[in-house]
Every structure is written in structure tokens, then in C-alpha cells.
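Suppose you are handed a protein chain with no further information: no name, no annotation, nothing but its sequence. What can you learn? This example shows the usual starting point.
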Amino acid sequence: MDESLRAQIQTYLSHLDGLIRRGRPLRDTLEKDPASKSAIAATRVWQEDCGVTINQLSGGSKAHWLARSFSEAFLMRSAAGSAVEGAAPAEIVNRLVGVLEQAVASLTRSDDGPIISASSEAPPPHRFDFVHNLELRPVVEQAYTDSRRALEQQRYDLALLTSCGILEAIVTDALEHKGLGALTTSDTPAGKISDWPFQTRLAVAEKTGLIRSGCARLPLVARTYRNLTDANGDSHSKATISERDARRTGQVLHVVMRDLDPGR
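A reasonable first move is to predict its three-dimensional structure. Written in C-alpha cells, the prediction is:
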């Protein structure tokens, strides 16, 4: 096995381990409280992250055994073996953890090498096709990847700051596309949209119907995230950012992404 493939496999193994460690407590929480809104929201984010990774490992092929295993994890089988309604949330998470563990086992095989298409170039995800500024799309796409990686590496300050930056960018893009004239109300501030405070942009976007009320769940440290960066945009420690704050900010980002792209 050449060194580049070995390094790629190690990267995937580290990523899979992070997904498994995130999935197990979600499963436990959903077993105790299947209706937990916070657990359900976190599970949706986790499932999307799992889907992206499985797609990459499967070489983008839905016919690959790993991709099929991922899809089947969401189904409940009847006694005759046919697919019926979906399984319980905790059971789905448990099955997906099992799929991730199968991926780990495949990547660590020592006989004929891994059977996962880890060396295949999967098509890059397009999460931000709803962004109107074409030059902004690859920027926020890379930032999204960086935020997920920072979260897995337990760099919660970087994860939160990056998620907030993405949130601000996509909301500003939506406001600018709608146009200042269409946004003007009695309490809309004057000046360029890009000069408005972060919280003002969120409030105007919600008031004009571009997004719903998901931003109400943003932690205070996220609402004032610009206070955590200096004039050069570098982060510095003025507040302790918890894992909960970082994950919740990421969840709000996903909600806003769905609001701005109803087809997601």
C-alpha cells in the first residue's frame, strides 16, 4: 500500500472514530427520551455528517455495499423481509454506528487490503448551492469542512467561530439578494447590509421571512462572536466556549441552511 493511501485511510479512521464517539451518546439519550428536541436536532446533523463520509468511502456509488448499509439503517423490516415504516430514532442511530464500525473494520483489514473505495475521488459535496454569490460558495464550503473538523478535534472555539462566520455570510448573501429596498421597515437600520451588526442581520432576515426562528437558540457567545476576534480576525480567549455552545451553534447553522434552501 502506498503512503498516500495509507495516510488517507488513517484520516478516514480518525474521522470515523469521531463519528462513532458522537453517535453513541446520542443513541443513549434517544433511548431514554425519544422526543428530545435537542437530541433529535443533534442527530440530524450527525446523520448528515455520516452520510457525507459514507458517500466518500463508497466512491459516490449508491450500489456500494457501505452505501446500501447506510440507507437500509433507516428502514424497518417486516417479518417477510419487506421494508415498512422507519425504525425508532435510537435504533437508527445504533444501526448507523454499526455501519461506521463496519467501515472501520474494512479499512483495517490486513489480508487483501481495505475493500472500501477510500482512494476513489468522490464528487465534492454542494451544500451551499443556494448561495447567490458564486465566489462565496467555495469559501463557505471549505469553512464548513473546517468547522466540522475543529469540532471533532475538540477545538470548540474555532468550531463556533467558523460556524458563526458561515451563518453571517449566508444570511448576508440572502439579504443582499433580496435587496435593501425590499427589506426597509420602520426599524431597519440605514447603511449597507454588510455594515449592520450580526444580530441585526439575523433579526431582519427573520422578520422578512428569509429564515425562521431557529436563531433564537444561538448561545450568547455566538451572538457576540465578533468580540472574540481581534482586528485581524484572529481569535483570542475572552470567553470559554463549551462543547455544548459549539454544537448548538452548528445545529442552528444547519437550520438556517435548510431555511435558505428549502430543497435540502
